[in-house]
Description:
This protein is of the alpha/beta class. Helices cover 37% and strands 19% of the residues. The strands form two sheets. A ten-stranded mixed sheet has the order 1-2-3-4-7-8-9-10-11-12, sandwiched between helices. Strands 5-6 form a two-stranded antiparallel sheet. A hairpin with a 6-residue loop joins strand 1 and strand 2 (78-83). Helix 6 (195-204) packs parallel to helix 8.
Amino acid sequence: MTDIKSMTVSQLQDLMVHLGDKPFRAKQIYGWMHGKLAASYDEMTNLPKSLREKLKEEYPLTVLEPVDVQVSRHDGTRKYLFRLYDGNVIESVLMKYRHGNSVCISSQVGCRMGCRFCASTIGGLTRNLLPSEMLDQIYRIQTLTGERVSNVVVMGTGEPLDNYDNLLRFIEILTSEEGLNISQRNLTVSTCGLVPMIERLAEEKLQITLALSLHAPNDKKRQELMPIARKYSMEEVLNACREYFQKTGRRITFEYSLVRGVNDFPEDAKELAGRIKDMNCHVNLIPVNPIKERDYRQATHQAVENFKIKLEKCGINVTIRREMGSDIDGACGQLRKRFIDKRESIKTDRK
């Protein structure tokens, strides 16, 4: 199947020529898909009916189907569950801030990175998402709410740099003038630390923010929490981040999930500060969301505050991530996992 919604304008022009139509139709189709967020070819009223019928028949339009939505009573955060064309489900989150709406999207169905405190990795990786499937999470949310999305975070289910080529195409289309035209500076891509891919991304010289999931001050603790740390040492990961800053001028964000009794001690903060004090960076402290499949617990409010104060005293820029949607399935992958568990349970009961 040719995924028309993942095509660039020039690729669409080639397709139009192939179909015996005029190349200028490419910009019209692109604008409908990525600017007006059309959910069907029937909406593309300035295209000849014959072309619309041909496209409908041969090039199905990727449009995600909303399956469930949870709305936080506390802050209006919305967590969406979307069904893909093959029956798989993914989740996305809309967070409302004073400065605008931010959407956190998934980049894969499942994840193979195995981070111990993350529900997304339970069950492993099913497949990569297409650029169109990454884009349409934003498009459907914007259509469903009627509100513009101004910031995008690729930090939901999956490791974005494990889906590198599709990620780059997604960024190209998302930031194009004919599409939503979201600034690269308003886009954050998270990674658990795939060193070769961070180095490759640095060469692209994009103006996106790189967020590294660090979660520990040393290799021993990081390996306990994140299997990828057995492949790439902290020194290798931090050097790749330094290179990213040198080539892009973009400050690095370090994500640090605080797990009670594991990585939330004052000495952890001191050691972390010593490792990153020479870097242009910002630390985002995250009180970890407990998940029933793991026995990790959220750090106490006092431990989080003490960690922040310790980092600040060492001259590190740090914030505590505001807990959004704490009354709904908050941790990455929880809503999806609950849906899959329920579906499997129904299948078992029918046997």
